[in-house]
Fold this protein.
Amino acid sequence: MSSATGRIIDTILSEIIDLRHELHQHPEIRFQESWTSNRISDALTKWGIPHRTGLGKGTGIVASIAGKPGKTIALRADIDGLEVEEATGLPYASRIPGRMHACGHDGHVANLLGAARVLLECRGALRGTVRLLFQPGEEQGGGARYMIADGALDGVDAVFGLHGSPQFPAGTIAVKSGSLMASADFFRMVIQGKGCHGADPASAIDPVIVAAHITTALQTVVSREVDPRQPAVVTVAHIEAGTTTNIIPDTALLEGTIRSFDPETDALLREAIERIAGHTAQAFRASASVTFGEKAYPPLLNDAAMTELLIDSACRTIGAANVVVLTEPQMIAEDFACYLEKVPGAFFFLGMANEPEAPYPPLHSPYYDFNDTALRTGIGVMAELALRFLSAT
């Protein structure tokens, strides 16, 4: 990065880290991020950055740093936490029972606020506008769609975002042109049986047995129905039935997710889940109803030109040796894909791992914590990316 940008980051970094720790202590789930939204707004107000609040179902924020007339680049951070009980033991651990920033969105917010500070100092060099998107409800909420509906992308020429990743070393970024992440949808299956006393199973239609058979059968969808050249995932992640040890329940619940990279495979997965659930349940004299999420996440497709700009900006900022160009997409999903359906842009991974021989806790783990040392990298790359995009207009 330029010496001027580096000096600005040196000046603000401790403040941004403190802010990240404060955000980490107050995780809030999808569309309930009132404290988080207010804290972001307070910071923007303190720094003199104009912004609008109350977007994206109530807790989203759009801020702008305007320079000379020109194009507009949007930078996005998601702000929500997860329903996870934190187990890190950190002095700044979550203060809210059953809630945690287990996906590192506290770090994403801090990173974007840090980039905003740098760009504010460089406002005189901006040939255009930097729009800052603080988006609620990324975790299964599809918050990007609500931000778009509220005009977050109106007049935007390019959009960029990042996500912390334990797969890559701290000080690096990783990116891929084209397909970077899979689509994602979620299914809910209710199996209707007939309950009775656990000592009299012959008079029951046991939904637990049906759930077990359906779960096993679903594992054949990818291995025996999907073209082996097409990546796909069917995961049953939640099974719930019964209340005690000696009663066969009336119903059982299965929930899970499907992932793919093309609409045909996605349709195949949906049909197979409904077919297998229905016929398996019928074979055991039960019934099964399947519903899918209303707002599936599309595949995340990075624009080729914007990816090239991102790679070039990162090479200038952190050195080519620290830029990982991926060859294969990831099966995880991100609603940032919704922005990329509207505006060209790119999404990248920000490395978290300190030591290869000591694996970093995975995303969504109760032990995960965004790595503060990665903030310098993320802030620098985001700021340089905005400056270079606008200087090219």
Notes: The CA atoms of residues 270 and 365 lie 28 Å apart. DSSP finds ten helices and 16 strands in the chain. The chain has a mean pLDDT of 96.
